[in-house]
Amino acid sequence: MKNKYQKILIFILILAALLRFWNFTQTDVYTDEALLGLRAIGLIDFDSSEVQQSPWQWVNDIPGWMHLSMSDHPLGIFLLQHFSFKIFSANTFGLRFPSVVAGVATIYLIYLLGKKLFKEKVGLLAAFILSLSPYHLWVSRVGLQESAVIAFGLAAFYFLILSLENKKKLLWAWSFLGLCLLTKYTALIFLPIFFLIIWHQKKIKEFLRTKYFWLGLLLFLIIISPTIIYNLKMQQTFGHLDFQLSELFQQKTEHWQVRAGRELAGDFQQKVTQLPLRLKEGLSWPALIIFIAGLGALSWRALKQKSNATFFLLITILSWLFWFLIIGATRRFLSYLSPFVALTSAWFIFYLGDFLQNKRIIKKIFFILLLTVFVFELFFSGNTFFTVRPYGRQGLTWSEVNFEIRSYGFKELENYLDQLLVHKRPAASFPPKYDFLTKIKDEALIKMKEQKLEATPLMIVYDNNIAGLAALWLFHRRLIYEGWPILDAQTYVMAIKNEGVDIFSSAGVKTTYFISVNSAVIPKNEKQVINFGSQLKDVLIKQKIQPEIIKNKLGETAFEIYKF
After folding, report:
1. Do 416 and 463 share a domain, yes or no?
2. Taking residues 316-342, what's their average pLDDT?
3. How far, CA to CA in Å, does 203 sit from each of 159, 197, 198, 206, 310?
4. Are both 170 and 286 inside the same structural domain?
5. What distance in Å separates the CA atoms of residue 160 and residue 199, rounded to the nearest whole number?
6. Are strands 557-563 and 511-517 parallel, antiparallel or unpaired?
7. Alpha-carbon 323 to chain mean position
8. Is residue 288 domain-shared with residue 419, that is, in the same domain?
């Protein structure tokens, strides 16, 4: 029987890996992963936005302590992606690989947790359900922090449960909790969750008397020490903590008058309204019904029958739901709940199965319905993630998570730029605004020259209507780390207007590629007021320059490339 379970587990892990690795590099990079990846390549804290600058942009010389964290997030995900880029190069594969690995690891961890709390069958079913979860599939296939936070958090949770019987496991619990917090501050909710579990088991005094608790705490503090030191120096130097903690503690700062991420979370009423809607978006209707019914049964079991395992699971889910009312009920945040939703659903299915043990006909009908649900879940997730545009009705046959990974044409443009610039180095380059960017550019140019790449006097101009985060990955990445002369259309048009048409040719540019965007297809950069891209396009059309067309996966014209 044990060998049978092992084979089932291997099948589930293979399925989970296939669903997460399959074509994971072929979707567009245009969300926050672009900003994370841009900084992770060189471990620099830089944001091109003028309204939400980083401390690196406030000083002339970068002090050592500024390398210990980023202004808005701890260093964890940036380190993971940085090493991934070192191995796989600064591309989409390197950007997303850590998330995919963490996603597959999470499937195994939920199996271990389900097996420990309940029984092996529950762990296997939870792993299978999670492998199909839209929210978890999504964060496993993009370069955001969530996949790593979930993996580290589940590992900490698992070792905490083990530590109730073996105190040495506290070392691992504290360590993984430290890694979790080093990846993102949202993991703070695990602290009260773990305290409630220890308190419920009446282990507080016992834990405080063991050396493993204090050694584990020391490891925890060592792991998160870069963030602690960084914030102490931020407070000392600028009079406030980092971007997230200054918001948490209501510190008023002149540097961050605009906090776009926090504004998107909305007020308390919006969070309350969004929570059930966002929860539904990550589940099909059958899965939602099973989870809600399972949560009700879990509550009854935990409160009436005094079950430790169900109490642990229930208090975790309730704590996360409460936390969402503080930090916001966005899709990214709701993804943290996905492992516990899967575990609750798996436990409830076996709970019902045991209840129907002596009712053969009803049990057979239940099994057929369950099999139908799983087949539908596979279709639901496949339709959400692996079709160019999902079939059927939104929310019924596919999840709204699709809007987070929808292909517009940015990947096709990225492929075009890769081919355009391969085996080449810039013959002309513009001086960056900041000294630390100049150093990066100069080192890149020297390295490319040593590699004997062909010096090419081209420049790239892109339409300002290209969504801001996509522009970071497509253009700023190449500008910063490869030194290519790249400008937005507004800067280009104003430079010619003020300095004359020869300004760029005198700098060594012989060929210019203008990338015009079809705003009817591509999400629009709302910051654009005057359409400089349209103005430049009209000029080039009058010169009878024929563009090269870049189409998206639907065959729609996404971009036009004008060479002049």
Report:
1. yes
2. 96
3. 15, 9, 5, 5, 18
4. yes
5. 13
6. antiparallel
7. 19
8. no
Report the alpha-carbon distance of residue 120 to residue 5 in Å, rounded. 8
- Give the residue-averaged pLDDT of 220-247: 96
* 397 and 456 both lie in a single domain: no
Of 206, 180, 319, 207, residue with least CA distance to 311: 319
Q: Which residue has the tokens 């996949």?
A: 147
Q: In 3D, which of 100, 67, 94 has the Cα closest to residue 81?
A: 94
Pair 148, 138: CB distance under 8 Å: no
Classified as helix, coil or strand, 545 is coil
Tell me: the pLDDT tens digits for 290-320? 999 999 999 999 888 778 999 999 999 999 9
Cα Rg of the chain, angstroms: 26
Q: What angle do CA 182, 185, 189 make, to 5 degrees?
A: 115
**What's the burial of 454, exposed, middle or buried (CB within 10 Å: 0-12/13-18/19+)?**
exposed
Question: Which residues in 314-335 are b (16+ Cβ under 10 Å) and which e?
Answer: bbbbebbeebbeebbbbbbbbb
464 vs 97 pLDDT, higher one: 97
Token pair belonging to 352: 């019902």
Task: List, as own/partner pairs, every contact residues 193-196 make where C-beta atoms lie below 8 angstroms and the sequence separation is at least 24, other chains included.
Answer: 193/157, 193/315, 193/316, 193/319, 194/156, 194/157, 194/160, 196/315, 196/319
**Token digits of residue 204:** 């507080």
Q: Using pLDDT thresholds of 50, 70 and 90, give the confidence band for residue 196.
A: very high
Q: Hunting for tokens 């002369």 — which residue is that?
A: 485
349 and 440 in a single domain? The answer is: no
**Which residue, 349, 381, 404, sits at the end of a domain?**
404
Domain match, 215 and 347 both: yes
Q: Give the H/E segment covering residue 460.
A: strand 458-462
Q: What whole-number distance in Å separates Cα of residue 511 and Cα of residue 262?
A: 42
- Taking the C-alpha atoms of residue 440 and residue 442, their distance in angstroms, rounded to an integer, is 6
pLDDT of residue 527: 57
Beta bridge partners of 425: 455
Range of the domain at 478: 410-563
Reported as a single tens digit per residue, the pLDDT across 138-159 is 999 999 999 999 999 999 999 9
From residue 494, alpha-carbon distances to 483, 491, 497, 532 in Å are 21, 5, 5, 9
* 61 in the same domain as 156: yes
- pLDDT at position 267 over 60: yes
- Contact by Cβ (8 Å): 484, 430: no
- Cα three-residue angle 456-460-462, rounded to 5 degrees: 170
Q: Is a pLDDT exceeding 80 seen at residue 461?
A: yes
For the chain, what's the residue count? 564
Contacts of 219 by beta carbon, 8 Å cutoff, 6+ apart: 171, 174, 175, 178
Burial of 371 (0-12, 13-18, 19+ CB in 10 A): exposed
The total of structural domains in the chain comes to 2
Instruction: Give yes or no: residues 468 and 389 share one domain.
Output: no
Burial (CB < 10 A; 0-12, 13-18, 19+), residue 539, is middle
